[in-house]
Amino acid sequence: MIKAILVFNNHGKPRLSKFYQYFPEDLQQQIIRETFHLVSKRDDNVCNFLEGGTLIGGSDYKIIYRHYATLFFVFCVDSSESELGILDLIQVFVETLDKCFENVCELDLIFHVDKVHNILSELVMGGMVLETNMSEILTRIEEQSKLEKSEAGIIAAPARAVSAVKDMNLPQKIKDMKLPDLPNILKS
Amino acid sequence: MGGSTFCASKVSRDLTKKATMPAVKGDNMRGLLVFISDIRNCKSKEAEIKRINKELANIRSKFKGDKTLDGYHKKKYVCKLLFIFLLGHDIDFGYMEAVNLLSSNRYTEKQIGYLFISVMISANNDLIKLVIKSIKNDLASPNPVHVNLALQCTANIGSKEMAEGLGNEIPKLLVTGMEKSLRETIDSVKQSAALTLLRLLRTSPEYIQIGEWSSRVIHLLNDQHLGVVTSAASLIEALVKKNPEEYKGCVSLAVSRLSRANLQDYTYYFVPAPWLSVKLLRLLQNYPPPEDPAVRTRLTECLETILNKAQEPPKSKKIQHGNAKNAVLNEAINLIIHMDSDPNLLVRACNQLGQFLQHRETNLRYLALESMCLLATSEFSHEAVKKHQETVVNSLKTERDVSVRQRAVDLLYAMCDKTNAEEIVGEMLEYLETADYSIREEMVLKVAILAEKYAVDYTWYVDVILNLIRISGDYVSEEVWYRVIQIVINRDDVQGYAAKTVFEALQAPACHENMVKVGGYILGEFGNLIAGDPRSSPLVQFQLLHSKYHLCGPATRGLILSTYIKFVNLFPEIKSTIQDVLKSDNNLRNSDVELQQRSVEYLQLSTVASTDVLATVLEEMPPFPERESSILAKLKKKKPTVTEQAENKEPKQPMPQAQMSNNVNTHNTPPPLSVPAASNPPSAAASDDLLGLNSPGPSQAAPSAGSFLLDVFDTVGSSPPTNGVDSNGLTPGAEESFKKFICKNNGVLFENDLLQIGVKSEYRQNLGRLGIFYGNKTSFQFSGFSIDTHCSQITCTPKPVGTTIESGAQVQQVINIECITEFSDAPLLIISFMCNGNSHRLNLKLPVMFSKFSEPAEMDSATFFARWKGLSQPNQECQKVFKAKFPIDTEQNKTKMLGFGISILEGIDPNPDNYVSAGVIHIKGSQVGCLVRLEPNKNAQMYRLTIRASKPPVPNILADLLEHQF
After folding, report:
1. B18: which chain A residues are within 8 Å (Cβ-Cβ)?
2. What is the ipTM of this complex?
3. Which residue ranges does the record assign to the AP complex mu/sigma subunit domain (chain A) (predicted)?
4. Would the CA dihedral through B684, B690, B695, B697 be positive or negative?
5. 3-state secondary structure B312-368
6. pLDDT reading at B837 higher than 60
7. Residue B646 has pLDDT above 70, yes or no
8. Closest CA–CA distance from residue A14 to any residue of chain B (Å)
9. Which of residues 30 through 59 in chain A touch B, CB cutoff 8 A?
10. Helix (H, G, I), strand (E, B) or coil at B369
């Protein structure tokens, strides 16, 4: 099972943390720091798996991670998960984020904590892989945002207008997460 | 989070841009955006904390205020709290508001409530009951979206309370659909329900009853919806692990689903349903190869197809394509290795892994090394794996990534056997010079184990270990150098060589302290073997060792001082030189009490004691009893699960054990080194114990002197309490509870925080039956539960028990016993299991003693005295005088003697206070009669116990058992 999903940036600032096993808050922060130290000093084209840090359970657990531009996506799993399968799951997660946020960047994760958590909960539930088919996930997210919009009613109208304006502004956008053609992935 | 860290990042420009126009993505949460931007602009940690506290005060007042907040505001504040929490600050309020959101009918509010609860709440929060109530309501909701939110929250928290409160609801969702009109959404509910059930099953299986639904759960594998099948496969795998028999039906369904996994399924980068395939292949790894030939053929076809696909040119250049394809391939190979039955597939798998070993993808090389470790343990493929030795050695040397190199070390360790041991050990030693610090200690252990396991020539072994110490002395743990000394002492063919080699090694200008320790110890024992050579004459040896003395720590110095006194014995000609050293202020007045004491006492010993006494006191160490290598124990401790798995799969290659038996002397050497050390600080380093300093003094030199090392080893390191053992290798308390059973048959044999063990027993003649009850006291499942019994003079036939014990459950085991001959050592009961990720081992004594096979015998006074006189040879009697441990109470004593299995004969002894008893002990094919007399002395609170029996050791065995009972 997946014990924890962590996203942090190149400086170790946490951007998403989701523990599927209870750890006290301060230990959660320590685990994030420890994991960051473990993965951040690794080169980009070394292997994506390594043994877990001592806080999260040591060598019985594996850290499986990917590094996209400014962010590390780290899954800490036990031996019942397939390493490559989880690696692909990270990719699905990021691709889904990318579709939902239209070119996702670190800021989206900061400003839309709730939405990121919702997307994640469509993929992983209680530490287990729930759905891996991206179109399926997107349909569900779509349904949810429809629900949200119908409930938000008139309040949502300005937001829709704003996003229309935003789309006109395309060239100005700086995209630090280009998916699926990721620079570090193309290299290998 | 200072602003500076952000500015360094590439995104910072982007961030600033976006932050200046928060409306772009802010939708309707402007307040949140402003807050986050504020935090970002904080210049210092203090400023950040200040801003956060301000915000927390604001939110708190909003929540407390009398104006009811609308959903939007609640959502905004909850998002802020989540953000604050992510930054690592405690949130101690807002929980009630979040719980209230759960009962809202609006999706957005409910959703944010569940989000907050799932991220923040801990399993034992007071509010959990309210949360469970809301979840229950939502599970019953006709709206599948609400049901799913509730299921997600249940799975994410997955606490015991949830299992208790919801365990009955969820299986219903899994197998019964709702109305037909909601066909589409039912799938998503089923999918989530399967995983929620799985999660609860893992935390508290006792609350989940699936029994009646098991066949319907299995048939979820036939579901149309891919997601449902994937989740169901995960659930079924967990169920199978508990009860393989009941879920056997899933094998054929899984195989047929696997063979249908083709392009009609959802494809991910041109690979059809990779996750499902992986799950199914994993599921199948829980069973032996299918028995039904049709299913078996189909599975073989599937595996061959997967292997064939690996050879096809890739359908896409995208890395995801290769990744997904290899995920399936790798799992297929693991299944082939698991089935371990089809040599053709095994060889293909091995070849495929061989290709991966040289693949440009690091991940694949890593996985190939890992899977090959398993292949190396299969007898079909062990040889095939060995062909790749060169490649593996190469990856050890050239891989850039330490986690891959670590796998290479593991594989080399697994593939090593007699034929390639020297080569592999050589490569590993060579690599050790430049190895990463993080893996050095483990490598050192592995090299030491391999060298010991496969040593044909023990001079090679000594060379390897000394090289280890030379190359990475810092990582050589005490176990390693203790072990080399054990082996050298036990094998006299290598002692001379060892002495010569350490002597040479010590000549290096800088040598590691561990080398000095080994050198000091070996020269002290066997320095005489090389003293004939003028280049290593006694004086040269002494001067060499003394040149290192001042560079060493106190523990080593203590060891060297002991070597000096041994030298005094071995080489009387340098006695005065050594005495001078001992006399020097540096030693005699050393501020370290231990060193000072040793100097004083050794000096005294060398002056006072005659040559004979000296020779006796400082005699050569007796051989160590054969035992499992302590290094191996250490390695196991480092990697509990990994090595155990490897061991289970490796019955043909028992883990190394020093081959000491051929040299073990049978004569009992007197205590070897009873150094007069009156006081010994409890903190004395382990190496001090090596010198026998734990013995109280020369007068009471412990008869178990040979086991000093054992004691040291058994307590070295910080082993968890349940794994600790006392000097007899028993779990603490085992001896005491064993004694409780001498006069009774039922009771609690062992209890700690995890486990309670109760025993009921009955005996008839030379047969006995024991019921042992194992109760799991924790809230975790025990897995890998196994029981082993060791006994020699009786036959002990334990009935098998399952390998798991659920939380709170009790398992019964029956052991049948037959007494073959008299015995004094009780059978050992060795219990091992895994609980919550920790492995535990208990070494207990099975409460079976020789007296259990005794039946009371009645006889009159004349017969008694006739028999008593008939048993008059010295070895037919044992007499003990001991102090009363309990108040002298006639009735209690009678109960005890009857419990012991002997009669109470009244009116035989002239003194009515005395007890006289008789019994017949049944052993296979014969009987031993025994007579007992117990004389209490109330004034002195003493007893005298006399036992006579026809067969020599029996009186002593019985007296030993009985003397602690009164």
Report:
1. 107
2. 0.74
3. 1-146
4. negative
5. CCCCCCCHHHHHHHHHHHHHHHHHHHHHCCCHHHHHHHHHHHHHHHCCCCHHHHHHH
6. yes
7. no
8. 7
9. 42-43, 45-51, 57, 59
10. helix
